[in-house]
């Protein structure tokens, strides 16, 4: 499994190929081919309904936005034209053919787009991902004050195997066609292309937002659309992105795995003390880049430096000095999440270490239960999305909705270049288009996709003209920092700058 989802279960990537599945736009006048796809492929699945629409409104910044919601599907075809999958999307549009349109994908692999949709940027929101939320609370949708709909149309894409999207081939073939790092990018890029063609929006300004593993997808989709399908993104927003899987490798020699997480652990400690600010974090980031890194590289050759480093890490994290000493100043994430709340009998979440839950196995040598946030968000997001799609919008389908598919994650295949991440595609996309702007947003407390990784990645990029074209911003909170009202407001302010909105 990939780190963002794998760690949460302990606790949570281009050249066009001739054999790559292609996606063809659905024909509004001939829906039968899509509706009969399940039976035609021998799976005897209930047919997907035709696209459904409903008109809604929301209040944002004192004004009412009236918009159309569309839930529908697009077919994925193989090289012989046979439908091998159906991808479901949820689109929010307002009048105007030349309004910007933003495509949104989440991560996992195996996550639907519900988290961005009903948590971050869609016009309606369900509460999840913060302290005090419980799975059994009513999954009530309310107006989202942080929606982006005021300045862009929104299209949320559920990859195959997530949401209601489905493969029409067996698991072995689906892994080859969809559940691998390269084919995933190619068919999702074609979904973006086909939605634009189907809706007559090729001339609209186009943007992409990806969260978590969707942040891994973001630069690759942008590059593939630019260079293979002829669709250029004007801007990319990556939220808590998983850009470089290889950065966490070789923890026995490389200082990088420990450098990536120490600042987020220190941020969580500052937040618990009510002292978390940008100013307070800067010296911690500087220490991590310099003294901490060099001390780790020296190893046992400099005992005095190691002792000083262990004392400093103890101060930064607020952890027991003996625990830090026995850890060698290298604070392993899951061990930390147990240790910091051990006296309370609780666990911290990898996604926001200051969100906790009871530890049902406090005396086990290792954490035996799932992540507090991950376990708690499945029920509200699933309930809210199923009711919204089937009842409010009226896309009448009784199949299972997968907010998070562990099956897809289990079947996932890494291609040869997966460990290289998507940093190369990020650089190439920015180099190809001098107008492309990228915003990378992280929560200070996120230990799943820590902000330090993106800081190091962007600092190593050539400026390529305006160095501010690629920016990293940090916000209070964790992986889903947008669940906090104040952090969401700060994010919207930064996103509006990228879109050129006052």
Key features of this structure:
Rossmann fold, 502 residues, alpha/beta, 38% helix, single chain, eleven-stranded mixed β-sheet, 17 helices, two-stranded antiparallel ribbon
Describe the protein in words.
The structure is a single chain. The chain is globular, with a radius of gyration of 22 Å. Helix content is 38%, strand content 17%. The protein has 2 domains: 3-245 and 378-432, Rossmann fold (3-Layer(aba) Sandwich); 247-370, no CATH class. The strands form 3 sheets. Strands 1, 2, 3, 4, 5, 8, 9, 10, 11, 14 and 15 form an 11-stranded mixed β-sheet that branches. A two-stranded antiparallel ribbon has the order 6-7. The protein has 17 helices and 15 strands. Strand 2 (52-60) and strand 3 (63-77) form a beta hairpin. Helix 6 (181-198) crosses helix 7 (213-229) and helix 8 packs antiparallel against helix 9.
Could you provide a short overview of the structure?
It contains 17 helices and 15 strands. It has 502 residues and is of the alpha/beta class.
Sheet of most strands: 11 strands, mixed
Total discrete domains: 2
Q: So how many helices?
A: 17
Runs in which pLDDT lies below 50 for 5 or more consecutive residues are 6-35
